[in-house]
Amino acid sequence: VVNDALVSGGIIADDSRIQMMYNQTGTIIAMTHILLPFMVLPLYSVMRPINPSYVRAARSLGATSWTAFRRIYFPQTVPGIGAGALLVFILAVGYYITPALVGGADGQLISNLIAFHMTKSLNWSLAAALASILLGGVLVLYWLYDRLIGIDNLKLG
What we know:
- The protein has 157 residues and is mainly α.
- It contains seven helices and no strands.
- The chain has one domain (21-153): MetI-like (MetI-like fold, Orthogonal Bundle), CATH 1.10.3720.10.
- Helix 2 (24-47) packs across helix 4.
C-alpha cells in the first residue's frame, strides 16, 4: 500500500519499490503504525482543553503566529508530549512480536536479543547484561522526564 502510494504519487519509480519486509525500515514503519495512537491520544487530551483565547490575546498584543505558538501554546502541551513519549518509549522497548514478524533477522530489537539469549543460546549472563542495560536506559529516561517535566505533571487524560 505504501509503495503503491509512492509510485502513484511519482515519488519513486515502479522498478525501485522500497523493501519493507525483513529489515529495520519495515520494523520502524510497522511500529510507528501501531504506536502512533499512543502518542496522539495523550497529545489530544492535553491540547483539547487549551483555551484558544490565549493565542488570540498574544496575537492581539503583537506576537507573530510562531511566537504565540512557541511561547503560549507549546509550553502548555509539554506534559502531554512527555507523557506520550514516555508511554511510546516504554511500549516500544518491550516490543517482541512485531520486530520478529516484520523485521526478520535484520529488524531485531533488544527485546528480541534478550529472548534469543534466554531461550535459544541459553546464554543467560548475556541476556541478564542486556536486560540490565535496557533497564538502566529506561530508568535514565524516566529520571530525565521527572527532572524536565515532573512526574506529578504527567497528563494522559
